[in-house]
Design goal:
Blueprint (H helix, E strand, L loop, with lengths): L2 E5 L3 E2 L5 E8 L8 E6 L5 E8 L4 E4 L7 E6 L4 E6 L8 E7 L4 E2 L3 E5 L2
Parallel strand pairs: 2-11
Antiparallel strand pairs: 1-3, 3-8, 4-5, 4-9, 5-6, 7-8, 9-10, 9-11
Length: about 110
């Protein structure tokens, strides 16, 4: 069955960096857009970034542009979210999704705090 598994979330100090990974299985990974969302406590999930085949076209929200990058390694069925210059307001649970398949991972928590 379709499965997405995130990893890489951690506690990090403001200004620090993290790399989140999303590994997909059960579908032809290279053919699908993969997106990252995040959810703040008590809030709905918000879109963060997306990477789409066939040319790895990327989209962002304004608040992460210049700090986060998204990339994919289709040979490893993995999408990465590289997060730099982290701020306290980036604290959230981060989820990856294959929107066309309505598939979501279980989420990985990121806490930015000194």
């Amino acid at each position: 069955q379709v499965q997405l598994v995130e990893s890489g979330g951690a506690l990090v100090q403001p200004g620090g960096s993290l790399r989140l990974s999303c590994v997909g299985s059960g579908f032809r990974f290279a053919a699908y857009s993969i997106a990252w969302y995040r959810q703040f406590p008590g809030k709905e999930r918000e879109f963060v970034a997306r990477i789409s085949p066939p040319y790895s076209t990327t989209e962002w929200i304004d608040s992460v542009q210049g700090r986060f990058t998204i990339s994919r390694d289709d040979g490893k069925n993995t999408v990465y979210l590289n997060m730099n210059k982290l701020k306290s307001e980036d604290t959230a649970v981060y989820y990856c999704t294959a929107p066309s398949l309505n598939a979501w991972g279980q989420g990985t928590p990121v806490t930015v705090s000194s």
